[in-house]
Design brief:
The protein is built from 3 helices and 7 strands. By secondary structure, it is an alpha/beta fold. A hairpin with a 2-residue loop joins strand 1 and strand 2. The longest helix is centred in the N-terminal third of the chain and has 42 residues.
C-alpha cells in the first residue's frame, strides 16, 4: 500500500471490514425483530376485534354458537297488519316447534286421545303445556286449533301437523301458545314425508 492511501479503499472501492459486517447483521436482525413484533400486535388486535364482535353478536341474539339455523322462516305477521282477525287473509310462516307450547284437549269420550297425540307432537319437537278436556261442540269433527292475536303463525304450524282442523280465533287468549282440540274424526298427525312447511294461510271454520 502506498503512503497516503486510505487503508479502507482499494483502487477507489470501499473494503468491507468486520465492523461493517457486524453493523449490517445487527440492522437486519433489528428489522426482522420489528417485523415480527408488528405482526404479533396486528394478530393480537385482530383476535381482540373478532372476540368483541362475536360477543356482541351473541349478546344481541344474532349468533348462537353450536346451534344450526332453523330451516323454517320466521317473520311473524303482527296483529296490526291483519284486517280480519277471525280469519286472516295473509300467509303465515311455519314456526319452530320449540318456540311455543300447545295445550291438547280431548273433546270426546275416547280414552287417551289427547295423551297419545301429545306424545306424537313431542316426538316432533313440540312442547306440550297440559292435557285437558273441553270444547265438546267440536267432538264430531277432526278438531280445531284455537289461538289469540299473537298466535296466528303458531296455529298455522299446528294445522299443518293436524290436517282437517279449523282455526278458531279467541280474542281473550294472549301470547303465542295455542290450544289443539281433538274430535272423534281425528286419525293421526300428518306423515312426515307429506308435511308441508311452506308459507300459507290458515284454514278457518
Amino acid at each position: 500500500m502506498r503512503t497516503g492511501e486510505d487503508p479502507e479503499q482499494w483502487h477507489g472501492t470501499h473494503i468491507v471490514n468486520g465492523e461493517d459486517l457486524s453493523f449490517s447483521s445487527d440492522d437486519h436482525v433489528k428489522k426482522s425483530a420489528r417485523r415480527r413484533h408488528n405482526a404479533f400486535f396486528l394478530g393480537l388486535a385482530a383476535l381482540v376485534l373478532a372476540v368483541t364482535v362475536g360477543a356482541l353478536l351473541i349478546t344481541t341474539g344474532k349468533w348462537t354458537p353450536g346451534v344450526k339455523p332453523s330451516a323454517v322462516a320466521d317473520p311473524i305477521q303482527t296483529p296490526a297488519s291483519i284486517k280480519n282477525a277471525k280469519c286472516p287473509e295473509v300467509d303465515f310462516t311455519y314456526q319452530d316447534p320449540t318456540s311455543f307450547r300447545i295445550r291438547v284437549l280431548n273433546t270426546t269420550d275416547i280414552t287417551g286421545l289427547a295423551g297419545n297425540t301429545a306424545k306424537s307432537l313431542e316426538d316432533r319437537g313440540f312442547k306440550i303445556s297440559s292435557l285437558t278436556s273441553g270444547w265438546e261442540s267440536l267432538s264430531g269433527t277432526v278438531g280445531a286449533v284455537i289461538a289469540g292475536p299473537d298466535g296466528y303463525a303458531q296455529a298455522f304450524t299446528v294445522q299443518r301437523q293436524v290436517p282437517g282442523t279449523v282455526f278458531i280465533f279467541d280474542e281473550k287468549k294472549y301470547g303465542s301458545n295455542v290450544d289443539l282440540a281433538l274430535g272423534e274424526k281425528f286419525e293421526s298427525l300428518q306423515k312426515d314425508r307429506k308435511l308441508d312447511t311452506s308459507a300459507g294461510k290458515l284454514v278457518c271454520e
